[in-house]
Amino acid sequence: MRNLIIFFRRYFNFFLFLLLEVICIVLVFQNNNFQRSAYLNSANNVSGKLYDKYNNVQYYFHLKATNDSLVAENTRLHNTLGTSFDTMITSNGFRTDTIRQYSDDTLHKVTGTRIRRYEYFEGKVINNSVNKPINYITIHRGSAQGIRPNMGVISSSGVVGVVRSVSENYAVVLSMLSKSNSVSISARLGQGKEMGSVHWDGESAGYALLKDIPKSAKVHKGDTVVTSGFSALFPENIPIGYVDTVTIADKSGTSFNIRLKLATNFYNLQYVYVIENLLKDEQQRLEDSTYKLIK
Amino acid sequence: MSILLRNIIRFVFLLLIQVFVLNKILIDQLVSPYLYMLFILALPFNLPRPAVMLLGFLMGMSLDMFMNTMGLHAAACVFIAYLRPFIINILSPQGGFETTQKTPSMTSMGVSQFLIYAAVLVFLHHTVFFTLEVFGFKNPLYLVLKIVLSTAASLFLIVLYELLFFSRK
């Protein structure tokens, strides 16, 4: 027993070193776990507030670019307003509100009910990185304002990422710029509707790879690639990027390797929109129970 | 200024510089300079080893908190904090450094000695950090290049820092 104590005291430094390293490694591995409660990350109070202060200063220098993007977004929204359409088809009933459609006659019957599927929240980016293998974005909007993990995040120009963890007033978004197998976005060609998936290769913050597009598809430089709407994270037809170069991995392969120019400019991201899919849980439950049945 | 106060100020200062200046600098995917481990390099010679390791752990964790890399920086910091006394032993002259100066710096160790000391520890830190960060040896050339280039950039910053704050002694 005495020898044991002497042994421990003699190598105390080494054991302390091992203990600390093990703690670190465990933390690193826990970090890989996609679902993780928000503690000790940039969503916590100290660093969140500091980033907030820092952003107040930095934000000023981006005012011009931010204004430009807001104006562009306003234009786009104006274009989708009801007042910018002519009523061409009169038999199709009243313009719908988001809840119900009524018949056109005097009976005023309900002909269909459309339920809201997506809800958008805006969020201010207070921290962002583009040069790490896995990049995170911290936004100033948290659980108190309705953000929960696994919501999709877009910018005014395209897809940004997925909410990973939230605290009361902040949320950390796993950026699309993450070189990890778990981060892939279900995509399709805007023209031909062929399905594929988008990964980031870790090289440049402006580009990503689109895989699994069959060789039969017609792909041209500049074609838009949009979200497929299958993943329950993003609605359909949100731009991901534009085709830059098309290569064939090997001659016997059946799919293209397409390099995309990303629609979102990650370098000057200031505002993002977090999307809540109100029907997500239902879809998830149905899919899960079906998988279980087959097993 | 007492040693304790000076180290506390250095801790905060280096952390802020790292988070708000260096992390915002985009040179290339291959070059990401780190300065914060200078805190561990510049701890007093006579500090007990467990204390050095715990302080290294604290420094790494604080930075991890800001960068969402739980444990990565802490692992690298604890690693160099553990190896620091060995490097100092190898580099120290017969009587040890403690007799002349209390903390490692260019003036107390001599320029070349300090450069070797810093280069070895920074290289070790970057090796551990980037290996853990990339996690895998899929692309060894990329990893080696990244370690070497980042070490060079970090060393450059450390020398600048030393020249700025210690030259007048």
From TrEMBL, chain B:
Belongs to the MreD family. It is a multi-pass membrane protein. This is Rod shape-determining protein MreD. InterPro entries: Cell_shape_determining_MreD (IPR007227). The keyword Amino-acid biosynthesis does not apply. Keywords: Cell membrane, Cell shape, Membrane, Transmembrane, Transmembrane helix. It is found in: Cell membrane. NCBIfam families: shape_MreD. GO terms for biological process: regulation of cell shape. The gene is mreD. It comes from Chitinophaga solisilvae. One of its GO terms (cellular component) is plasma membrane.
